[in-house]
């Protein structure tokens, strides 16, 4: 996760944590590219929030509490828009601060051409650029498929 190595990530409650500390033991990281102004994003975000909050740990991978973390990569027009979007419909996941240089690097690195987009990585290896489809089609069971890629 070279692009976010030294980034201070934020939660919707405003607390900050270093990316290295937050992601150190996570097997899967989902980069969620989204924005409040985007209708398809506003439709998918509650689905992703429910997916994230589901006790998928017991359902799918019971011995591992450090299975998945989601990082919101905002395309919102302002920090205020980003914050209200997070408060309104996001899960209790992390976000790259609005305007941080890592946003552009990630969008370029993952060749993000449209949103919403959910990119799943394990360490520095891309598991899928189409995580949104996996979440929508398979639900929590998709985690098993993603974990096979590690």
UniProtKB/TrEMBL annotation:
One of its Pfam families is: Thioredoxin_8
Q: How is this protein named in the record?
A: Uncharacterized protein
The record, for Gene3D superfamilies, names: Glutaredoxin (3.40.30.10)
**GO annotations under biological process?**
photoreceptor cell maintenance; sensory perception
State the PANTHER family in the record. NUCLEOREDOXIN-LIKE PROTEIN 2 (PTHR46762:SF1)
The signal peptide, as residue positions, is none
